[in-house]
Each structure stands twice: as C-alpha cells, then as structure tokens.
Design goal:
By secondary structure, the protein is an all-alpha fold. 82% of the residues lie in helices and 0% in strands. The radius of gyration is 23 Å and the shape is elongated.
C-alpha cells in the first residue's frame, strides 16, 4: 500500500471519528443519545391518551380508593412481568439457535419476541397511565 492509499484510509477513519464526535456533541446537558431516539414527550402523549381512554371506558376520572388503584396498577405490572418473562425465555432459546446456526428459526423467534416487547410496552404505558390517574385523583389529599 502506498502513502496515498494510507492517507485516504486514514482520512476515512478520521471522518468516521468526526461523525461520532458530532453525535456526542449533539447530546446536550449530558443527555444520552437514546433519549433522542425515544422522545419522552411522545411517550407522555401515549400515556395521556391511554389515561383518557381508561377514564372513558370505566366512566370515572379517578379511582374510587387507593385499594382499587393499587389492585388495577398491580394487575398491569403483572402483565408486564409476564411479557418480560417470555422475552427472557426467548433470549435463551435464541442463543441456542445462534449457536447452531439456525438462522431461519432465529429470525422467526426474533419476530415473535419483538411482538412480546411491544405488548410489554403497551402494558407499561397502562401502568404509567394508572400512576397518572392515582396522582390526579389523590393529589388533593396529600
């Protein structure tokens, strides 16, 4: 490899490094890059929409008691746990598919696991909506 080719390669590597540095610079005030990918405001909008649907479905703006609030929220948390238990089990099976180069089964499992993850996210949004409903219903009692 001649000097010119080495300079071209070094310049490409330098450009890649510059891109990574620019990515890091754009993360202001110590925020992590993932926060930009999943905007918390979008999540908050989903939680508010879920809460509105919850209130409309049950025809009530707040829970009748802390006991009811706890029970409903706990049920949603248990549904999250069930989905995540499935995701953890899927990951163990996925590793076996990977070890034995079973690409077709691995891809099928990843598709299924992604659906589990999405259901877990839906349930987490419901948990967050329950928390919001608790705050709104009982904040005057504090």
């Amino acid at each position: 490899m001649n000097l010119w080719e080495k300079l071209i390669i070094a310049n490409k590597e330098n450009e890649e490094l510059k891109k990574q540095i620019e990515k890091m610079k754009c993360c202001e005030n110590g925020k992590q890059e993932f926060e930009k990918m999943t905007d918390i405001e979008k999540i908050n909008e989903l939680v508010q929409k879920e809460m509105a649907e919850m209130c409309e479905k049950h025809n009530q703006e707040k829970f009748n008691s802390f006991h009811e609030a706890y029970a409903v929220t706990k049920e949603e948390v248990e549904e999250v746990d069930a989905e995540m238990d499935g995701v953890k089990a899927d990951m163990k099976v996925l590793w076996n598919f990977i070890k034995y180069d079973n690409t077709k089964s691995a891809v099928e499992l990843v598709n299924f696991t992604q659906k589990r993850c999405n259901r877990a996210i839906q349930e987490l949004i419901q948990v967050s909506a329950c928390c919001e409903k608790i705050k709104r219903g009982f904040q005057n009692e504090v």
